[in-house]
C-alpha cells in the first residue's frame, strides 16, 4: 500500500536529505531485521546498520531513523540512536581524529513511543500491511535500507447488514414473511476465528424484543446473502411490530464498530377477520396474503442501544448455532441447511 493512498493520513516530514555521503562519517548497510511486523500485536522494529569513514572534530551527532515509502523524499520519524564513535589524537598536527566502531549496531524502537496517534490508528486498522523502507541519516549523509518491512494488516472487521428487505409488510398472524439480507464487513475481511451469526427477532411497537426465531452462520471471510422465511406468530394481536436482524449477537468477534450490528423494519399485523376486499379498500395495498409491499431494513445507532437479547423461546426451524471454529465449506453447508422455513411450533 502506498503513502499517497492513505486517506486517514500518515503524518510525514518532508525534505529528508538524500544527497550522497558528503560527511566524513556516514551510515550504511542498513538492514531491517524483522521484515514482518503485524502491528499492534507486535510493535518493536529492529534495524541493523554500520557507520563508515572518519573525521576530525566529531560533532557528536546522532543517527536519525525514519520510515519512508518514496525512497526517502519524505518519511515518518521513528527516533534516533547514538553512533558508536571514538576519538583520539593522531590527526594532522595532533588534531583529534574520530572513527566509528567496525561492529554492527542495532536500533530497536517501540513504534507506540514514536508514532503519532493518527499513524498508530491507521496501522492498527489497516486491512493489508503498509510497506516501508528505513532511512538512516547522519549529519548530511543518509542511506536507505536495502529491504522493506510490512507493518500492520491486522485490522478488525465491521460486520453489519449491508442491505436487506422483507415482504409482505402487512400480514395476518400465522402467515409467512420472507426476509432477504446481505451481511458484509464495512472494514476488513475476517480471515480466521469464529464466524458471527445473523439472528432474527420480533419486537413489539415499543421496540421490545418479544420473540427470537434463531440464527444462521455468516460465511467468512467477506459475508453472505441469506433468504429466510419466518412465520408471524399465531395469536398476535393486530398492530405494529418490527422484524429485527442482529449480527454477532453474542459478540464473538471484536469489531471496529459495535454500534451498527442491528437492522430492522416495521411490519403490520392485521385482523384476520377482515376481508381481503376491506383490507385493500382501507390500505390501498395488495391482500395481506399476497406478495404485498416490501420494507427495506434500516440501521441506526439508537436501535443498537435499545435492543437487548432476553431469554426468548426459539423456533426450531432456525436452530441455534453453537459458536465454534468452522471452515468455509462447513459454513456454506450450514447456510444451505439453516436458511429454511422457520416452523411455528415451540421447541421442547
TrEMBL record:
Gene3D superfamilies named among the record's database cross-references: Immunoglobulins (2.60.40.10)
UniProt KW keywords: Signal
InterPro entries to which the protein is assigned, alphabetical: CARDB, Ig-like_fold
Start and end residues of each CARDB domain: 157-263
Protein name: CARDB family protein
Pfam families (alphabetical): CARDB
Domain of life of the source: Bacteria
Cleaved signal peptide residues: 1-23
Keyword Transcription regulation in annotation: no
